Amino acid sequence: MTTAIVVALLLAGGQTAEPPKKPDLATISARLGMCTADFTVADADGKPVYAATVHVRIRYGFMSLKRMDLEVGTNSDGKARVEGLPLGGRRLTYDITKDTRKTTVEQDLTKDCHAMYMVTLK
Fold first, then answer.
1. What integer is the mean pLDDT of 8-33?
2. Separation between Cα atoms, residue 87 and residue 70, nearest integer Å
3. Which of 39, 61, 78, 83 has the fewest CB atoms within 10 Å around its CB?
4. What secondary structure letter does DSSP report for 7?
5. How far apart are alpha carbons 70 and 59 in whole angstroms?
6. Distance CA 121, CA 101 (A)
7. Per-residue DSSP letter, 3
8. Residue-wise pLDDT tens digits, 93-106
């Protein structure tokens, strides 16, 4: 019985507070390749923008006849990721919007396969 009490006390004393959990990264995949685009969206004051929409239209296939629209919202840290982009594909234009604020960024997949963008919505 004494052993059970000692074990219980050791287990209770060994508990520590867990660090705050980071929000999951909002991610969407085109499943066309290995390239990525990471976004961090902030407002004019530098604060993260939650639920900003990142939209891109991808054209691919023979004569770029196929197209795919992808859209992902930012998490509470203002972060989002688009992955599975085709290596050496066409230039992509991302539209980032929140309410009435909007901006665009471009990614040239022949030069920048793993792009990172810091975007400010004003």
1. 70
2. 17
3. 61
4. H
5. 11
6. 6
7. H
8. 999 999 999 999 99
H or E element in which residue 108 lies? none
- Reading the block at residue 58, the tokens are 């991808």
Rounded CA gap, 53 and 40, in Å?
11
Over 39-95, what HEC string results? Answer: EEEEECCCCECCCCEEEEEEEECHHHCEEEEEEEECCCCCEEEEEEECCCCCCEEEE
Rounded Cα distance between 60 and 86, Å, is: 8
**Which domains does the chain show, CATH number per domain?**
23-121 (2.60.40.1120)
Whole-prediction pTM value?
A: 0.79
Q: State how far the Cα of 66 lies from the Cα of 91, in Å rounded to an integer.
A: 15
Q: Mean pLDDT over residues 64-78, rounded?
A: 94
